[in-house]
Amino acid sequence: MNLREVIRVALRALARNKMRTILTMLGIIIGVAAVICTVAIGQGAGQQVQRQIQDLGTNMLIIFAGSVNSGGVRMGSQATKTLTADDAEAIMQHVPSIVAISPGLGAGVQIVNGNQNWATRADGASAEYFQIRNWPVVEGSAFSKRDVDSASNVCVIGKTVATQLFGDDDPVGKVVRVEKIPFRVLGLLATKGQSTFGQDQDDTIIMPYTTLQKKIVGISWLQTITAEVDTQADIPVAQQQIAELLRQRHRLRSSADNDFIIRSPDELAQMAGAITRILTLLLGSIASVSLLVGGIGIMNIMLVSVTERTREIGVRMAVGATEEDVQRQFLSEAVVLSSLGGVIGIVLGMAASILVSSALHWPTVVSPLSVLIAVFFSAAVGIFFGYYPARKAARLDPIEALRYE
Predict the structure, then answer these.
(1) What are the residues facing 164 on neighbouring strands?
(2) Are 323 and 394 in contact (CB under 8 A)?
(3) Kindly report the CA angle at 355 between 354 and 358, in degrees rounded to 5?
């Protein structure tokens, strides 16, 4: 028999016991649907994390003030006071691959507008900060280099701060008080939403770093320096050059630890990517157990079918069917059974992914690769678990089979 005839006979045989066929397929359907849905959730989470990390800025390096050892006690990150605006200027001048740089520091502040007030984080930065962070001002304008040089009382605010202080009113041009000091709102930042770590990025006010240094926190050093590298390939070299330059400027001995920390969002992206891949693999592996259970169900039903159809097998062999013909027939039934379950499972898995995405507002991504893998494994399950019953059927003695009642 050709392939079409084999499939036709297999479908006719499976249709004899519709309820049993449906129940047998159910294990494969649930298994494939679970694999499709869990992998879609894992891949969606991975893409969301990568997108949020990219929102921090592309080709970016962040230099943090490091820890300090005082009397044998090591302080935490940003405990040193050696990172300065002069360091930022030196990096810009002596590291060729740096195209933009922004000194930075932050502090918790209370902002007041009329009878409304809000506690948030104030970030000090230079005019280049918005370019480095890919964070445009959607209303009004950002502050300028002149504002930074003169430590002007100006700021731009995030959407959350604007909503809390102004409601539906336009905040641009209004005056707010930050720690009792009047500041003019120059612009409103584009909405960024939550960061990878669950922080509301829109709950912020950004002002010239010189203003925050001199008028809010009263310090002369920096907590961070944010630098943009021209290409991603130059990040490792730039990181090494910055480290060497800062060690030289801070007069650190060769045996001394760095008093600064250099980090790149690419490192976070790689780490987050590895974690999401592991989680996706774990979720897919757990869900694939259902496929194993479904395969055992197929083997069980096919063994029952061989027993029920013993006399039929004897008749087939008596009229000329070979062992290969009988084995091919039962194996094709198992493959058709699992493949149909796989197709239905793919449809249900995609539907479940869409439902999860809409109900929980969690991104899901159904990749063509995961669908192909699901189809392959469902067919493989049919072949693997259908081989033994098919082989058993093929090895029946025709005479004994004809006598079977």
Answers:
(1) none
(2) yes
(3) 85
CB 97 within 8 A of CB 230: yes
DSSP string, 116-154: EEEEEEEEEE-TTHHHHTT--EEEE----HHHHHTT-SE
Calpha distance 323→329 (Å, rounded): 10
Handedness of CA 23, 29, 30, 32 (dihedral sign): positive
Buried b (16+ CB within 10 A) or exposed e, 55-73: bbbbbbbbbbbbbbeeeee
The pLDDT assigned to 77 comes to: 53
User: Which residue do the tokens 């770093």 mark?
Assistant: 209
Q: What is the pLDDT of residue 96?
A: 93
User: Is the distance from CB of 205 to CB of 123 less than 8 angstroms?
Assistant: yes
pLDDT tens digits, residue range 135-174? 999 999 999 999 999 999 999 999 999 999 999 899 999 9
How far apart are alpha carbons 21 and 17 in whole angstroms? 6
Would you say how long the chain is, in residues?
405
> Positive or negative CA dihedral for 100, 101, 107, 113?
negative
Residues in the chain with pLDDT < 50? 70-76
At residue 74, the 3 state secondary structure works out as strand
Predicted local confidence at residue 246, as pLDDT: 93
CA-wise closest residue to 125 among 97, 87, 96, 156 = 156
Show the tokens assigned to 81.
Answer: 């006071």
Question: How far apart (Å, rounded) are the C-alpha atoms in residues 182 and 323?
Answer: 92
